[in-house]
Amino acid sequence: ASLTTSFSEGVMPVNAPTQPTAERVRPVSLLRFDFDSHAFDHPMRKTYGAETTERADRLRASEAFQDLLLRYHFVTDEACNKLARKIRSERSVKADFETAVSSGIEQVDNPCEELRDFMASALEVPAFIDMERVERGGAIFQKYTSPTVLALYMLPVLAAQTVPSTVVHTMLYTNRPNKPRTIDEHFSSPEYRARGRFVVRIMETLRFVGQISGKSCSKPYSTAFIESCRIRLIHGHVRNGIETNPKSWNYLPSFGWDDDEFGKPISAADGMVVLTSFMAGLGAARREMGLEISEDEMDDLHHWYNYLTHLQGVPAELLLKSRTETDAYTAAYFLSLN
Questions:
Q1: Which residue has the higher pLDDT, 317 or 105?
Q2: 3-state secondary structure 154-189
Q3: What number of CA atoms fall less than 13 Å from residue 242's CA on the CB side?
Q4: What SS3 string covers 40-90?
Q5: CA angle at residue 252 from 32 to 160, to 5 degrees?
Q6: Which residues of 106-128 are buried (b: 16+ CB within 10 A; e: fewer)?
Q7: DSSP alpha helices (H): ranges in the chain?
Q8: Other CB atoms closer than 10 Å to residue 179's CB: what's the count?
Q9: Which of 10-24, 251-265, 301-315 has the least mean pLDDT?
Q10: Residues 181-204, buried b or exposed e (16+ Cβ, 10 A)?
Q11: Contacts of 133 (CB under 8 A, 6+ apart)
Q12: pLDDT-derived band at 183, boundaries 50, 70, 90
């Protein structure tokens, strides 16, 4: 609780060193993280700017930040996981889900407990998110996201999200071969090219972001709400699939998922950074290109980010009230990637 308060109030650890130290012992050893790594220094420092990355360096050097981030790699969206399992065992619940996210739970005859819990978690928006500002934030995103801004300032951060081991392993699972193959054989096969190309995933992400920033993006049962809930449910299916089949993925040599190395698939920490690529990209374009976005508009964009991240099932503790804190927190996350 004290750590959350310090983030929310913009307070950095008093005695935190300015750079990470190799001697610090982490409570959990995830292959994904190396807090002395500088693999993403150049693109991230260019995107977030000197002032934010200086704060990020102090933040990621603190044991409190490391503890929080590592802890949330073992936290997932349990309401979504339960609904995904229910749908897998009772296919009729999928139709109920579609009705509920598009028209409301009251339109479903005798909805199951799992669906009720899922809908309640989506509709119970944290009090610090201003829904009028969410609506304005979506419009601001569409207004200022030009092809130039997208290519120069958003795609580099989006690409960085695909590099960590947890994301790579999740994509390998969802695109696993039908028969035993080496990774090289599978990547060069027509089956992989049809199902799992990197460019296809990027385009799917861009299409999704277009849907969640459209008109009425702050409204329940809007396109933004529906598509966010659908993506959230897909993540639940993937998590359940990996956890029930952590090893036999048909790759040669055999490998799979190990919680001790990666945390949980599509964890709360993963969900926190999905939309930051776009918010940080507009901030960089504002700073580097002189894009005329006001402070109020950037704050509106932050409310939009927090709301859509909430709809992805991310705990409120990871939704910071201040845009400057969100920027520092997510910059620290990216600068920690190994």
A1: 105
A2: HHHHHHHCCCCHHHHHHHHHHCCCCCCEEHHHHHCC
A3: 28
A4: CHHHHHHHHHHHHHHHHHHHHCCHHHHHHHHHHCCCCCHHHHHHHHHHHHC
A5: 30
A6: eebeebbebbeebbebbeebeee
A7: 2-8, 41-60, 63-72, 78-89, 92-103, 113-123, 131-144, 147-149, 155-160, 165-174, 183-187, 190-195, 198-212, 223-244, 259-262, 268-272, 276-289, 295-311, 323-335
A8: 8
A9: 10-24
A10: beeeebeeeeebeeebeeeeeeee
A11: 299, 300, 303, 304
A12: confident
* pTM: predicted TM-score of the whole model, two decimal places: 0.84
Q: What is the pLDDT of residues 240-265, one digit of tens each?
A: 999 999 988 999 988 899 998 888 99
- Over its C-alpha atoms, the chain yields an Rg (Å, rounded) of 20
DSSP code at position 264: S
| pLDDT per position as a tens digit, 190-215 | 767 766 566 677 778 788 888 899 88
What is the rounded CA–CA span in Å between residue 68 and residue 7? Answer: 11
> If you ran DSSP here, which 8-state letter would residue 263 be given?
-
Q: Residue 303, exposed/middle/buried by CB under 10 A (0-12, 13-18, 19+)?
A: buried
Measured between alpha carbons, how far is residue 33 from residues 68, 104, 272 in Å? 13, 40, 16
> Any idea what DSSP says for residue 29?
-
Q: Fill in the amino acid letter for 234.
A: I
The b-or-e profile of 6-33 (16+ CB within 10 A means b, else e) is bbeeeebeeebeeebeeeeeeeeebebb
Q: Which two tokens stand for residue 31?
A: 């292959």
Backbone angles phi, psi at 32, to 5 degrees: -65, -30
337 DSSP assignment:
B
DSSP secondary-structure letter at 275? T
